[in-house]
Amino acid sequence: MRFNRAISPIKVLSFDLDDTLYNNHPIILGAIGAMQTYLQSIPQWAAQEDDYWLACRQYIGNTQPHLQSDVTQWRKVALEYGLSQLDLTQEEIERHTQLAYQAFADARSQITVATSVLTLLDKLAQKYTLIAITNGNVEVDKFNLSGVFERVYLAGPDGQAKPAEDLFRRACQDLNVQPQQILHIGDSLDTDVQGANLAGCHSTWLNNQGVNYKYQGLADIEICDIHQLSTLC
């Protein structure tokens, strides 16, 4: 654990979820695969080029950029758009949109957080209020993080995606704390660290992804393993 700046007394620990508390890469690939398997059962969709889904998603992202802060709505709207370009009735479009997204969502929550991480969170919860702030759309109540967090803030329903300040401000308001009383932990310099810094919160960068980020600012704390947070207990 490396401290780049001194931090003031903390009341709240805020966690990013995907790739911070578990490896999300195989999970998201499995969820996309489940969605694609369903879509390939629709003859009109199966007849399209292999990159049809990506083209639909990109089109909606470009034409309705506000949806990029709500990945659930972005995916649903892209599905509906893609299906609407095929020879389908409106009832079929709506039904396939719902079922294709449900296939994605069900697989998206097939997560098991390591026992050691759950033990760490339990110890931290004895001293701090734990919350989650995520740009993703995972449903925490469907796997073994259920009940761990006092609150879970989702980009889209609860405000603009990190690095926007919305979710951090919402947490401060709901929990009646000052920004500097929140320490946010996440794997991304661009979203987690930049967002926390912009909001006036403290930040911890979990540097374990081997990714080159655009943001040049420093996290207050840098770790390479989530278990290093045990020093905060």
From TrEMBL:
Signal peptide limits: none
Keyword Lipid biosynthesis assigned to the entry: answer is no
List, alphabetically, the Pfam families matched: Hydrolase
Q: Which UniProt keywords apply?
A: Hydrolase, Magnesium
Question: Where on the tree of life does the source sit, at the highest rank?
Answer: Bacteria
Gene Ontology molecular function terms on file: hydrolase activity
Name the cofactor(s).
Mg(2+)
Q: What is the protein name for this chain?
A: HAD-IA family hydrolase
From which organism does this entry originate? Pseudoalteromonas obscura
